[in-house]
Amino acid sequence: MSARAGIGAAPVRRQSVWEWLSNPWAETRFLWVIGIAYIVWTMIPLIDAVIFSFNKGRSTTIWQGFSLRWYTGDPLGSVLHSPELQHAVVQSLKLASLTAIISVPIGVAFALSLHRWRGRTPGTANFLMMFSFVTPELILAVSLYLLYTHTFKAVGTGTVAQLSGLVVLALAYPVVIVRARLLSLGDAYEEASLDLGASPTRTLWRITLPLLGPSIFASAAIIFAFSLDDFVIVNQLATGSTDQTVAMYIYVSARVGATPAANAIGTLMLATSTILIAIAFVVYRRAAKRIGDRP
Amino acid sequence: MDHPNQRPHLSRRDFIRRAAAAGIALPSISAILAACGKGAQTGVATDSGGPSTNPSQFGTGGVTGAAYPLARPDSPVTWKVTSDNPVIASNLQPETGATLQVMAWPYYVDPGLLAAFEQQYNCKIQKTVFSDMDKGLEKLNSGQGEFDVMLGMNVWGLGRQIAAGHIRPLNLDYIPNFAANVWQQFQDPFYDKGAQFSLPYSVWSTGIFWRNDMLNIDPASMSNPYDVFWTNPPKGKTHLLGDAQDVLALAMFHDGLTDVNVTDAATITKAKDEIAAVATAAGGVKYDHVDYTDVPAGDAYLHQSWSGNVSDAVVFLSDKSKADVLSYYWPGSDGHPANVDNDLILLLSGGKNPVLAHLFANFMLDQKNTLANFTNMTGFQMPNLAMTQDTMVSSGIVPDHLKTVIVTEDDFTKGSRELELPTAADALWQQAFQELQAGV
Amino acid sequence: MSSGATILTPKVRRPKRAAASDRGAWSPRWFWPSFAAPGIIYLLVFFVFPFYVVLAITFGGVGAIQQEPVPFWNPFTWRTNVLNFTFSNITHGDGLYQAAFVHTFEFVGLATLGCLVIGYPFAYFLARRAGRFKGIFLVLFFAPFWVSYMLRMLAWISLLQDNGWVNKLLVNTGIFGKPFSWLAGHPVTLVIGLIYGYVPYMILPLFSTLDRIHPSMLEAGRDLGAGPARTFFRVTLPQSRQAILAGFVICGLPMFGDYFTQTLLADDSSTRMLGNAVVDSLSFNLFVARGAALILVMLVMLLVPILYYLRSTNRAATEGLG
Q: Could you say which of C55, C94, C96 has the minimum Cβ distance to residue B27?
């Protein structure tokens, strides 16, 4: 079985219909159909969205010819000319990067601490962290909304509130990813360092953190990607158009009558994140390889 | 060497204890216990936790029922200007390098006008959109943001916001276009005597909007035009407006009520049940404010609509000839009970640019700008002397068969208005609408 | 920074590491716990405390002018009328929230099952059959994770219009006689939308588990005379049971809080979910406390799957990774 799986796409040997029916799970073709159908199903809307961003007319359903109207041409509604759209892009990128910058150090420190700290308290702390991880976002968003509109009124809703909510969502990613890495690394490197007389702080900076590099980087990339796309938290904690992100813009336009400008801005974000993910992937592969090469 | 496997296994009891220690499970459990303590009760909880107020501290006139006076056409209200929220002095220079924060409905102000204002006064405008009045009020109520101007607050939302101190009193010296261009009846409106806090923005009627190529109806010839919603409404293609006031008023108008600002539970419940009957007959209705795209796109064939959204639909259609399939009828034009209303330009006390905000209001009331706003974007008419059915049709902005979307000054004598309700009644209306949305 | 920390640290007295569990002794006692402090404090302020605000508002009062919720901080002054109202509207047949409550379970249940039905074969394919194309398929599979959910929903709105491509395809192939108004508020559209949005979260744990099943296990099954079908049901499926449950939880939990898929694809009273009831409550001052109460109910309701999931992952972390 595994041997056949290894062959993969190689021509499948002929089988009778009876064999196929009696043995569907062994049939590679059946699974290939499913695999391809699934990818097509997930990709079609993306392709549709990208195509209609180049529509000449106002419609997102009926093709009216190719143009760059919604990117550059339209004097009011295009990405190039609409400050509202540009601001949404900036706000999305700003929130995503700040979320990563704030939550990664806190999360990594938390993971390190849990890995070393003995006793009952770290268990409770980890429980709390994981609980925040699986709580439905709406619960988090509404409770923070009530917090900012009734308790932290001086701060109020807005970018700070959005950021604080995203960080709650994000914190657990570095904790999970870095802890897994710590477990697989074992203690040998650090013990060696300590035995050679390095202080705990020095060991942390010179040994542990570099070893954790790829996983820290991976968690930052994941956090950036999901913060960029977050809707529930960001929308609930927004005050005005200054806090509007791309996801919010697309949501509102989808409800009140979207123009292809929404597709255009979504396509630009898609291009941005694809490039970023590609860079992240290459960097991660290199870093992981370098560290993996060590004895 | 140490190994993760050697960590103590987390037992179930440990786990629950930790949940409790983490402070999450306990409050929730106590919430359930508290709930079980008393028998369930339905209805609306309106008991107040705040300090009591005397309506006259906010203004004189009006009817009672809330912590502030409620304006009625026969019982107008003069609001008080208080020292903690004073009128700004005349002849001040506009703020420089400022960002004016404007709140508005979607597609409710022409971006070209905003750009022109930015250029003229060397400032920036930041526009925030709210998808319906409740969402807009939610933004105001939460006291967040430093908004300077709100475009489009309903008259039924005004008193509460003035009482809460959210609205900045006007210095009309900055707004000469108000006296010059706005209809006489809005110079001293009953809901704000002397226009101390508000300026009118749009006027509209609420009527029946349909696709004449899909539906063969003629409400004008019917003894009760509203029957179109109850008799054979198009299945899955019937939409109503998305707010409690308009939706329940539809049933009340259908029943022949001329004043829909009712407070008794029986009438409200009856109206709710009748709307539920529309939903049953139409195989479900959608409550939304996007008639301007729904109907041209064919998502709805029959829509309770604001006249402004109907003309907006024409503005939205890239090909004007497609407007032939759109029909609009306002029952008030034939003496049936119906709604005609206006909304408001408000300057907000939380804003940081009061002078610029005044100038912006004046800018929006300019005759040329009013027309540009209508033609380029909103399709909502302003009660401006320049905007009449004749000028709008002859200039080709509105197709002749839809000219009734332009409200006349006279229409305000024919239609009734949706006004601010007593607190308890307001809750009943909102409750009824929530029940309709929930389908119960 | 490192020097600062060492100055504060008196010469570290490092005892011999006698017991294996004694790692904390590498450094002063407070050293490692202090690393967790920012995270703990952050969660206390922005995760735990907001729940208390939710309680204070659920059990609080109402302002005189604005009818805005007034939180009561002292539990002894709490009023239960709003929670009672919420409860009775869930339990009574004609209650405001019962339909949304029931729908939420129906739609989330159906959509989660749908995710499994679609996700399992795909994960199986990805793990065992994609062969040398595995890399490409993995990249394509992960694409939705970095493409805006809203953009994909916007595209579905366009595809599902009366005159959209889905209807064109269905009518031209003769499957449907006439176009179907997908967006007129049908549960089927909502469930498909939910499946579309969340199925990657089902595939992820399934794939990582199926990918780890060692081929030798399957070969052993075959060598013992089991056919492929039998091998699947006796070896593969039991091994992935844990992953299926995990998939159910991480796929289902966020669906409980979903309201935007409904508003975008299937806005109608017959498709409203709890999330919609919560969000709608927030827009009218007097009903904000009801939204808070619904949040509480939702949280308590989901406590069981949440705790189950945390417990099983904790166990996996302590047992599995060794």
A: C55
